[in-house]
Design brief:
By secondary structure, the chain is α+β, with helices and mostly antiparallel strands. The protein is about 15% helix and about 50% strand. The chain has ten helices and 33 strands. The strands form eight sheets. Strands 7, 8, 9, 14, 15, 24, 25, 32 and 33 form a nine-stranded antiparallel sheet that branches. Strands 10-11-12-13-26-27-28-31 form an eight-stranded antiparallel sheet, with no helix packed on it. The longest helix has 18 residues.
């Protein structure tokens, strides 16, 4: 972990030579414990048909952990209490296994105890994240004016009313995670069922035994989350990975191989989102909403998030005259967020796990904030030269430790708010509109204009001569790659592996998985012009993959086939915030006959 001490620490006044020296042990494990243990494991998100397994948590081992190193505790204690005679031979410290043993005058030990209490309360502020996954009936969120981002008080009330109305919505999952600043937490609510989804064979010279292959089918919701605080009442940053699965229709398939029973084929509707985004503590935000044609049915699934933050520890009287120590949250300015590529949909490889590749965007390294030293310089810029004394500011453990007068502390705190706000909260809204070919030919010439594109999307949303085949919107922060998807998963018997003995043979079913739906991955950067953004955007829709049995009979048994269509688009462009952009067009046969155009639109807006 990076720990930079920006300025030299000044020694305080010498202590009285005749004061009795005492010894006290301070437990500093909370202050020095890593925010994310390397190798820590959680339940796998419900996106894999294989047996439950362990996966790494959200953050990678190199990510900023927002904690103090054992070596950093002692300098910060000296910074908090400058008037103690630290250079006196009677003062000493020793750190071992999370315990700091200090020898010092009794009065100094009491003040150290108060300082450690302040540090524990300040760094241990509880952060509670409540997440609700709700399916709203078609058009409900639109009618309430509930877009992506933090909801206004009036809109929030209307959304909560709709959530409580069983005719307009249904709750899929409720999750809660409790943690502290910069530390990962997980929450899950899942349900498992087992199905016979394949067979293996045991062959002898004159006989074959087909052994059922039982798989676990998981539905529910899994969340991994890391909050990064930005100060009292200021927007925090949440680093989130969320996966939600609901059960769909179940079917059975008769393979027809000797000794083989029926293959059970459960389906799932899936929603997934990975991003770092800004939220306003104490308010409800809609950070993801998605729908796509398929087994999920009508409506739009939305993720409602509310963050509650415990009270700050206040200022600590620490120096001569009217100076106090304030610990200022610096996370949004310093934090690194891993850029994760999005999943491919399409037809995964023929393997039992379901496979699946990744839609990558160039430059997928972690998005990093400024370093400690640069932040320290920028925080002191508003102060007069004679106020920039050498011992007033330390940046360590994802915090700025500032000692000064009330006026100086307010100036630096305000400066931190300005710096943290540079990581803007943005929303990407992507829509696939299905338009009859004749209508598309009339409109395509003018659709390059923003107003015509907006009108085309509005018509599709209202169902006026066209429709929305998929819509997925999500929030992220400027510069970071984030990914969102709404799709279905269906298993089917792709082929058969044949095993032969002297007089017997068996066809072992090979199970594959068809994923249909809509997925996108984007990176949005804003620059000097706040009304424009550069966008790298990749979108993919897969549809029409009806699974049918291959009727050819053979001793090995039957298989199934699927013929999905895939529409992919990749864009690198500059856009005006709020304007719809056409990212791609697919013109082809409509499922019910005739021809249609599938048009992919996206827009970037400032998340409120």
């Amino acid at each position: 972990m990076r720990t930079a001490i920006l300025f030299l620490l000044a020694a305080g006044a010498a202590m009285a030579q005749d004061e009795e020296i005492g010894t006290r042990m301070f437990d500093v494990r909370f202050l020095t414990a890593p925010g994310t243990e390397v190798g820590e494991e959680v339940l796998v998100p419900p996106v894999d048909w294989s047996e439950p397994m362990a996966v790494p948590v959200l953050t990678d081992p190199n990510m900023e952990r927002f904690v103090l190193s054992p070596e950093g505790v002692w300098p910060l204690l000296r910074h908090a209490l400058p008037s103690i005679g630290w250079d006196n031979p009677g003062v000493s410290e020793e750190y071992s296994s999370g315990v700091l043993t200090v020898r010092a005058p009794a009065s100094s030990l009491d003040r150290m105890g108060a300082a450690f209490d302040f540090l524990n309360r300040t760094l241990g502020r509880r952060v509670t994240i409540d997440v609700e996954v709700v399916r709203f009936q078609p058009g409900v969120l639109e009618s309430l004016g509930a877009g992506a981002g933090t909801l206004g008080a009036d809109v929030e009330g209307k959304v909560r009313e709709a959530e409580a109305d069983g005719k307009r919505s249904s709750v899929i999952a409720v999750l809660r995670a409790v943690t502290t600043d910069g530390r990962c937490a997980t929450a899950s609510s899942t349900h498992d069922r087992t199905f016979v989804m394949g067979y293996s064979a045991m062959l002898a010279a004159k006989s074959a035994i087909m052994e059922p292959h039982v798989r676990r089918h998981r539905v529910g919701a899994v969340m991994e989350i890391r909050p990064v605080l930005a100060g009292d009442g200021e927007p925090a940053v949440l680093d989130i990975r969320l996966a939600v699965a609901q059960p769909g229709p179940e079917s059975e398939f008769e393979g027809g191989a000797p000794g083989e029973g029926r293959v059970q084929q459960p389906t799932r509707s899936m929603w997934a989102w990975e991003a770092a985004t800004r939220v306003q503590p104490g308010r409800t935000s809609i950070l993801f909403a998605g729908s796509a044609d398929g087994i999920a049915g009508d409506g739009e699934v939305a993720v409602l998030v509310r963050v509650s933050v415990g009270e700050a520890g206040g200022d600590f009287p620490s120096g001569p005259e009217d100076r106090s120590l304030r610990v200022i949250d610096a996370g949004p300015a310093l934090a690194r967020f891993v850029n994760r590529p999005g999943e491919e949909l399409g037809l995964p490889p023929e393997e039992h796990s379901g496979g699946g590749g990744a839609v990558t965007i160039p430059d997928d390294e972690a998005e990093s904030g400024m370093d400690d030293e640069e932040l320290g310089r920028r925080l002191l810029e508003p102060l007069a030269d004679d106020e920039k004394v050498v011992h007033e500011l330390v940046v360590a453990g994802g915090k700025a430790w500032m000692r000064g007068t009330p006026a100086q502390l307010e100036v630096v705190s305000q400066r931190m708010r300005e710096i943290s706000s540079n990581r803007r909260a943005l929303a990407v809204d992507a829509v696939v509109a299905v338009i009859p070919e004749t209508e598309w030919l009339k409109r395509k010439a003018g659709i390059r204009e923003a107003s015509a594109a907006a009108d085309c999307v509005s018509r599709a949303v209202r169902g006026e001569g066209s429709r929305v085949a998929a819509r997925v919107r999500a929030c992220g922060i400027s510069g970071q790659v984030f990914h969102a998807a709404a799709y279905d998963e269906r298993p089917f018997v792709v082929s058969r592996n044949v095993e032969i003995a002297d007089e017997k043979s068996a066809g072992i079913p090979v199970v594959g998985f068809l994923r249909q739906g809509f997925s996108w991955t984007a990176r949005v950067r804003t620059g000097a012009d706040p009304a424009r953004a550069s966008v790298l955007f990749e979108g993919e829709q897969v549809w029409g993959g009806v699974i049918t049995a291959i009727e050819e009979s053979s001793p090995a048994g039957r298989a199934q086939s699927a013929s999905p269509r895939t529409f992919e688009s990749s864009s690198s462009t500059t856009v005006a915030l709020g304007a719809w952009t056409v990212a791609g067009v697919d013109l082809g046969e409509a499922p019910g006959g005739g021809r249609e155009a599938r048009v992919l639109f996206f827009r970037v807006t400032e998340a409120r």
